[in-house]
Amino acid sequence: MGLTIALNRGRILKECLPLITAAGYAPAERFEDSRKLVFPTVDGAHRLIVMRGADVPTYVEYGAADVGIVGKDTLLEHPGAGYYERLDLGLGRCRLMTAAPRGVDISRGPLRVATKFTQSARRWFESQGRQVEIIPLSGAMEIAPLMDLADCIVDIVDTGSTLKANGLEALDTLAEISSRVIVNRAAMKLRFDEVEAFIAALEAQLP
C-alpha cells in the first residue's frame, strides 16, 4: 500500500477534494455516497481516511497516517512533535481573532474569554500579560458576551457577518488560518519519494 492520507471532514474536505482529485489521488467512490471512513484511491495505490479535524494531527503524529490535510487552527490547538507542517494549500483562508461587543473597551483588567480555541487563546493573552479566565465552549461563541458569560471571545472570523449580527466587532488577529499539509516525521524519511510526489502533485495544482 502507498500513502495513507488523513482528511479533515466537513468544509476542508469539500474544498480540498477537487485539488486532491486533480493531483491524481481521487477516491475510488464518492465520499457523499458512503458511510465508510477509509477509501482507496482510483488507482488503488493509496488510501484516504476521513475523520474529525482534531484527530488528523494525532493519526499523523503516531504514524497511523503518513500525511494529513487539516486547518491551521487545529494544529495550533493540537501541537505535536511527530509531524512536519510542509505545505500551505491556501484553502479556507480566515483569521483566528478576538471579538467583543461594539464600543466596549477590553484593553484593561482581567477578562473572561469564551472560546473553543482554548490553547491558542491562553497563549495569546499570556503573551500580552493579561489575566484571563478561559471559558471553553464548543459553539455559539458569539452569544457569550450577550448573555454575560464572557467579556470577549476568540473565534474563527471569515466575513465577520455573524459577529456583526450579534453586536460584536473583530479586534486582534491571533493567527492567519488556512488548510495545511502535515507529514509524519518517520514517513518523511522512510517514504520520502512518495511523500514528495504527493506534495509536488498538490503544489502543481495551486494557483
Can you tell me about this structure?
This protein is an alpha/beta fold. The chain folds into 2 domains: 4-92 and 178-205, D-Maltodextrin-Binding Protein, domain 2 (3-Layer(aba) Sandwich), CATH 3.40.190; 94-175, D-Maltodextrin-Binding Protein, domain 2 (3-Layer(aba) Sandwich). The protein is built from 7 helices and 11 strands. It has a 6-stranded mixed beta sheet. Strands 8-7-9-6-10 form a 5-stranded mixed beta sheet.
Q: Strand arrangement, largest sheet?
A: 2-3-1-4-11-5
Percent in helix = 25-40%
The overall strand count is 11
Report the CATH architecture of the largest domain: 3-Layer(aba) Sandwich
The H-level CATH homologous superfamily of the largest domain, spelled out, is: Periplasmic binding protein-like II
The figure for the number of domains is 2
Largest sheet: 6 strands, mixed
| Gap between N and C termini | 30 Å
pLDDT < 50 stretches: none
Instruction: Give me the secondary-structure category.
Output: alpha/beta
Average pLDDT, all residues: 95
- CATH topology of the largest domain, by name, is D-Maltodextrin-Binding Protein, domain 2
CATH class of the largest domain: Alpha Beta
Q: How many alpha or pi helices?
A: 7
What gross morphology would you assign?
Answer: elongated
- Please tell me how large the radius of gyration is: 19 Å
How is the topology of this model organized?
Elements: E1 4-8, H1 11-22, E2 38-40, E3 47-51, H2 56-61, E4 67-71, H3 72-77, E5 83-88, E6 94-101, E7 111-115, H4 118-127, E8 132-136, E9 152-157, H5 161-165, E10 168-177, E11 179-184, H6 185-190, H7 192-205
